[in-house]
Amino acid sequence: MIVAPQARHQVQDLLDFIDASPSPWHAAATAVERLETDGFRELKERDRWELGAGGRYYVVRGGSSLIAFVAGSQPLERSGFRIVGAHTDSPGLRLKPRAPHAADPMARLGVEVYGGPILASFADRDLSLAGRIGLRGGAGPQSRLIRFRQPLVRLPNLAIHMNRSVNEEGLKLNKQTELPLLLGNLLEAFSPAEQFLDLLAHEAAVEAADILNWELHVYDTQPGVFWGAHQEFIADSQLDNLASCHSSLSALLASHEPAATCVCALFDHEEVGSESAKGAGGSFLADILQRIAAELDRQAFGQAMARSFFISADMAHAYHPNFPSAYEPLHPIRVNGGPVIKTNACQRYATDGESEAYFMNLCEQAGAPWQQYAHRTDLGCGSTIGPLVASRLGLRTVDVGNPLWAMHSIRESAGALDHGMMIRVLERFYAESPA
């Protein structure tokens, strides 16, 4: 299986995007940089908006959620919105507000579990910290991105001599007592808190006394790579779901003078339920759509929403040949087999027959194969932002994603061919002429 140069270029760009985005706040900043390079203009929610046909705009809420859009050439009530949604956050570990503490002879950092990560995958990795800090300022508190590029912390495994059953029973970590990260040796002249504040201040080039707080995510410093006999696979952190953020953003950047208004919505907090001011369960998307359509009356806005479509893009479970009993036997999802349509009778995914057929048609037009995923009936099924957006806004919705191994590990794997296929399908979606 040979990866063509264009597909390889797209996937390398994905790996670069992920490696520049070690936290949700960095992911939004990376997206903003790409949008502004392509001529998108920032809109502030507190300001009055003046929009024009063909205009390219973006809005950031809370530093880690972003909605970008290209205003369509056709009236909204006749063309509607073409919306792709994904999420900027990934499962992992977050520092507590008072993280630094002594555990003789070490300084450690206390963490909370964010979402549902595979905790064992964090052991013996080259870990560091990224996110944002709050600073005192003359005009009020300010927020600044921060990232330690060198390995800063570690979660060493307990030697097998003290944990003889680890290979039979798996690595089990007490979330309170065994997850704190080792930071360094205790220093006689400094408390762990002072030691950590000095590290933050040096990295951010600020005074330690000016640091008010932090929101810091633990990330793996190893960059993304191609692997496999023909380099047909990729491995990186946060493929779930920065790969979907990248594909939707790439498709929007390629959208010029669309008939319908094209929207790329990247939300934080999906991994913890989306119920926040900047999550997909909040008002962010509804607020932005209403402001785009501010000149329409209620009847016309209802027409626009009825003509709209939402693609919920989140990664899908790829078949793992070492664990065949974990999968629904008639729905094996193959890596490098193309985009996956996800269905669930209990509406854990928002796909229905009509929306599924619609996405299949998009795939055919884009020259991409599709796959259909159903979860084992005797296992609980995860969910996405699809049902949340569909139920709150009444939008026709399909849940899709690309195949992924080791979902929620700190090091996930996917296919080098699937990503370019998804971009082509989403480009076709944005370019579609209103019915």
Structure write-up:
- This protein has 435 residues and is α/β, with parallel strands linked by helices.
- The protein has two domains: 5-90 and 237-431, Aminopeptidase; 92-220, Aminopeptidase i, Domain 2, CATH 2.30.250.
- It is built from eleven helices and 20 strands.
- A nine-stranded mixed beta sheet has the order 1-2-3-13-4-14-18-16-17, sandwiched between helices.
- Helix 6 crosses helix 11 (418-431) and helix 9 packs across helix 11.
- The longest helix has 15 residues, at 5-19.
- The mean pLDDT is 96.
CATH topology of the largest domain: Aminopeptidase
Q: Could you give the order of strands across the largest sheet?
A: 1-2-3-13-4-14-18-16-17
The biggest beta sheet reads: 9 strands, mixed
* β-strand number: 20
Mind telling me the C-alpha Rg?
22 Å
Gross morphology is: globular
Unreliable spans: none
Give the distance, in angstroms, between the N- and C-terminal Cα atoms: 38 Å
How many helical stretches? 11
Structural class: alpha/beta
Determine the strand fraction and express it as a percent band: 25-35%
Summarize the topology:
Elements: H1 5-19, H2 24-37, E1 41-42, E2 56-61, E3 65-70, H3 76-79, E4 81-87, E5 92-103, E6 106-114, E7 127-135, E8 142-147, H4 166-169, E9 181-185, H5 192-204, E10 211-220, E11 225-227, E12 233-236, H6 239-253, E13 261-267, H7 284-292, H8 298-306, E14 309-313, E15 316-317, E16 340-342, H9 353-366, E17 371-373, H10 386-393, E18 396-401, E19 403-405, E20 412-415, H11 418-431
Helix pairs in contact: 6-11, 9-11
